[in-house]
């Protein structure tokens, strides 16, 4: 018995997910990393820029904390994309309750970790919150631009 060819589908954030001929997408961590390579590149560039700018000012601890904040934002982005791909591919109904529960748990966990680290390394720890906020803003813009282009094309 031969398998049907693989086709692709898209998540709501533009992520491409492979689907087998059975209609069941197969999301994976590697696929999410491949699909999110632009945002990963921006995150790495932001981390380098933190050390470059703040290091020249002698604020190495603040640079490290800002880099950790960007890293936490990047992990948050990738976990969200993977969860969305798995939710869509599961074939189960996507409900507000499921999305709300995941979002609240994810954001509470992220907030507890971020604030805990920021307090432990205060006053340089404020850089962690700054890095997290700046990464979130840039990720939002990078996610919105393709969606706006797609709407304009229609």
What does this structure look like?
The protein has five helices and two strands; from the N terminus they run ββααααα. With 154 residues, the chain is mostly helical. The chain has one domain. The protein has a two-stranded antiparallel sheet with strand order 1-2. Helix 3 packs antiparallel against helix 4 and helix 3 crosses helix 5. The longest helix is centred in the middle third of the chain and has 30 residues. 23% of the residues are buried.
Structure at a glance:
By secondary structure, the protein is mainly α.
SSE map:
Blueprint: E1 7-10, E2 16-19, H1 29-35, H2 37-56, H3 60-89, H4 96-120, H5 126-153
Antiparallel strand pairs: 1-2
How many individual domains?
1
Within the largest sheet, what's the order of strands?
1-2
Count, helices: 5
Q: What class, by secondary structure content?
A: mainly alpha
Low-confidence stretches: 1-8, 17-22
Major sheet: size, sense and barrel closure?
Answer: 2 strands, antiparallel
Chain oligomer state: single chain
What is the terminal-to-terminal distance? Answer: 41 Å
Count of β-strands: 2
| Overall geometry | globular
Question: How large is the radius of gyration?
Answer: 18 Å
């Amino acid at each position: 018995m031969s398998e049907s060819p693989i086709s692709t589908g898209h998540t709501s954030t533009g992520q491409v997910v492979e689907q087998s001929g059975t209609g069941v997408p197969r999301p994976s961590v590697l696929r999410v990393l491949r699909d999110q390579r632009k945002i990963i590149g921006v995150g790495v560039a932001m981390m380098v820029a933190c050390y470059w700018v703040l290091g020249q000012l002698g604020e190495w601890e603040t640079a490290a904390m800002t880099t950790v904040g960007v890293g936490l934002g990047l992990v948050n982005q990738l976990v969200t994309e993977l969860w969305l791909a798995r939710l869509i591919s599961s074939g189960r109904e996507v409900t507000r309750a499921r999305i709300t529960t995941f979002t609240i748990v994810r954001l509470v966990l992220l907030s507890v970790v971020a604030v805990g680290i920021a307090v432990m390394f205060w006053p340089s720890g404020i850089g962690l919150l700054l890095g997290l906020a700046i990464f979130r803003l840039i990720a939002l813009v990078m996610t919105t631009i393709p969606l706006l282009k797609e709407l304009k094309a229609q």
